[in-house]
Amino acid sequence: MSxxxxxxxxxxxxxxxxxxxxxxFKVYTQRDLDRIEPLVRLSDEQRFEMKVVSTVLPFRVNQxxxxxxxxxxxxxxxxxxxxxxxxxxxxxxxxxDRVATLIRDGAGKVELDAAVNEIRLELNPxxxxxxxxxxxxxxxxxxxxxxxxxxxxxxxxxxxxxxTCHSYCTFCFRWAQFVGDKDLRIASSEAESLHAYLQAHxxxxxxxxxxxDPMVMKAKHLAGYLEPLLRxxxxxxxxxxxxTKALTFWPHRFLGADDADDLIRLLERLVEAGKQVAVMAxxxxxxxxxxxxxxxxxxxxxxxxxxxxxxxxxxAHINDDPAVWARMWKLQVxxxxxxxxxxxxxxxxxxxxxxxxxxxxxxxxxxAMQQVSGLARTARGPxxxxxxxxxxxxxxxxxxxxxVLALRFIQxxxxxxxxxxxxxxxxxxxxxxxxxxxxxxxERWFWQDEYDAIRNEKVSVAKN
Length: 464
Ligand code: SF4
Hints:
Helix content is 31%, strand content 17%. By secondary structure, the chain is of the alpha/beta class. The longest helix is centred in the C-terminal third of the chain and has 16 residues, at 448-463. Mean pLDDT is 91; it is low at 6-10. InterPro entries: Aldolase_TIM (IPR013785), Lys_aminomutase/Glu_NH3_mut (IPR003739), rSAM (IPR007197), rSAM_sf (IPR058240).
């Protein structure tokens, strides 16, 4: 080896948590609605509406969001207020009236809980067949809780200590995990079962640790899952992705928090050992990137050698505007973040309030793309994480005189479907894959028979 070609040694970041202010984490849930000071400017009726909605759907917000991100002169329209605080329209009128009446009449806990549970089950708590189709089984046929394996290369892991977030998004597609119903949770605390599963599956290259938000965990717990992956038997795991909204909801987690240094060192060790570490940051609005703490946290995470990739859904009342996306993508690139995905809001929870029709979603995507330079054009979308796979809306066009939506699989249950264009009849109202029908008078999608067979098999195994 020549003198100049020394082995590459990762330089640890020289910043320490002690350089940052230690900000206490203060959180509010439904019980504390009356203690959130800025809400006094709302009417009693508005506060009651929040109470009704948050009886059914999870609510959690922290002081940082209240103080630094919400513009209280602009409520209820403020996008971050819409992102975190319950809105009346999130419940269908019949559901809202049922719960409001029970609360007004002073119904007992048992009666109220029963009504709430019935409503929750009507809100499609597990979209895209997660429970039946993505949960792998061990050799004895037992379901491996906390693991999802939908696409060949990628395993999702839900550590049980990470099944909450520093705040909750009103539109959360994983809301069912936060409402305290054990049957609705997907979680595991068993590092061994994760490691055994990964060891038995050499085709897996990517591990996505997700939640909730794994960054709510103590660094030592996260390390318990991730550090063993540095052993040679896990060489096939090239990429560790960590899904998080902590860079928005609680950037102090990476700055002055007690174990912030441990977390930063953990990321550094993984990078140094040759793993690709991707922090999959959930962003919905440029405002989330626009505080001092948010930008300091981004710098500190990037200093570890991890790459931050940004993704998030397109949501009515929050970011259904090309200018918001263009400004967000530009700011992400400026801060060294890679724009990755624009998602379509999933068919669960308060979707009727937040959904944006697919044609409109594509128009927003296109107009936003037209305003940014090449480095921000890395965002794919709008994309639906549907049961057959991730389906991107590529555009509206005309083929043989018929107006159609052009679609493609970005990921598919069968890898052979990936990148094959297919066409749906033009429909301005459709907001999810199951609202679309094939174009050109065809009766079935090209993937339909194969998907039905896969589904039948998985569902019958799940039932047994
Ligand atoms: S960060 Fe993700 S999991 Fe957490 S509340 Fe928001 S959408 Fe749900």
